[in-house]
Specification:
The protein has 347 residues and is of the alpha/beta class. The protein is 36% helix and 15% strand. The protein has two domains: 238 residues, Alpha/Beta hydrolase fold, catalytic domain (Rossmann fold, 3-Layer(aba) Sandwich), CATH 3.40.50; 91 residues, Rna Polymerase Sigma Factor, Chain: A. The strands form two sheets. Strands 1-4-6-5-7-8-9-10 form an eight-stranded mixed sheet, sandwiched between helices. It has a two-stranded antiparallel ribbon with strand order 2-3. A hairpin with a 5-residue loop joins β2 and β3. The protein is globular. The protein starts with a strand and ends in an 11-residue tail after the last helix. Bound molecules: acetyl coenzyme *A (ACO) and L-homoserine. The site of L-homoserine has 8 residues, from loops.
Amino acid sequence: MLKTFQYQAPFITEGGDTLEGLTVAYRTYGQLNASADNVVWVCHALTGSADVDRWWAGLFGKGRLLDPERQFIVCANMLGSCYGSTNPLSPNPSTGIPYYYDFPVLTNRDIMRGFELLRRHLGIRRIRCLIGGSMGGQQALEWLIEVPHLFDSAYLIACNARHSAWGIAFNEAQRMAIESDSSWGQRTPDAGLKGMEAARACAMLSYRHYQTYALTQSEAEEYSPTGNFRAASYQRHQGKKLRERFHAFSYWWLSKAMDSHDVGRGRGGVEAALERIRAQVLVLGISTDILFPLAEQQLLAKYIPHAHLRILHSVYGHDAFLIETDAVERFYFDCFAQTESCLFPVS
Ligand SMILES: CC(=O)SCCNC(=O)CCNC(=O)[C@H](O)C(C)(C)COP(=O)(O)OP(=O)(O)OC[C@H]1O[C@@H](n2cnc3c(N)ncnc32)[C@H](O)[C@@H]1OP(=O)(O)O
Ligand SMILES: N[C@@H](CCO)C(=O)O
């Protein structure tokens, strides 16, 4: 069941804006044990939600990496997202109508502070393992740096210390697609949806890889050179699929939060920031990830004091972390099985 936490004090963003009545939606699975040392916190990616059992179903269940019979699992919807937390379509308490374009630009650090407020509200004092992939991994990093002694271990997948010029360029191209929709600018919840379809199709090129498309979307031997190509119909399907479950406001604002990502900001640079981390950290990179290339995970592993780097060889590109769940789990157990940080001992 989705629960909500409402923060009573004004929330001041990194950009100096104030949000009143901040809401963080979250789900918990399993029970906190007597020694309160079985908390696993999961940070979701761009269009995920607090329903980690749905979007990471392959990792979830008895005997799996995320096992509610052994762990107390928390997953919160990131601020700005449209799955229950405060976002641009939430009513502005001072007017009673949605913020729309007046919503402040949030940073990954703001989003992490939303998690931290929820953590205190829930009375959680230790986190056994913090797990995040992609944008969720970026937020997990922010948290590991900001509150280093809170965490025993972390699993950071396909993420980076600072969003790259390449990543920002991909996001800007997507925002341009949304902004070119003639309905963008209207104060209605469905503004920009057509543009968001194109934005998602553009994003797919960064979430997958040449090899993924070659493997799954190549034409059969006999095909019409002037007809509809499989890859073209796939792109359109992905756009429509997102349109049915997301809105352009969250998409636009979350892409800005991703652009803001730089763990070194105000902390003396990336290297100094990463060196503050105290947890045992497994960093996983994906061989075909063109959005968060391996060099970015190598940099994390170089400067995080207790880091282990592993590489998942996959044809699925960046999104392999959502698709190749057996491999994601295996890397975790191979790395942590014999350590105290392991989520459960392997006999
Ligand atoms: C409410 C919540 O809990 S949020 C949950 C949803 N959000 C998330 O899961 C966020 C993270 N998840 C994702 O990004 C994605 O779901 C992933 C990466 C895990 C998997 O992506 P998918 O789109 O499911 O996989 P894939 O790339 O193989 O595409 C399969 C889809 O494309 C369709 N497809 C494949 N080839 C073609 C084609 N040539 N033409 C048209 N459609 C095609 C398939 O029929 C399938 O459609 P369906 O999902 O509507 O059944
Ligand atoms: N496919 C992911 C984004 C990339 O991690 C999502 O839709 O959340």
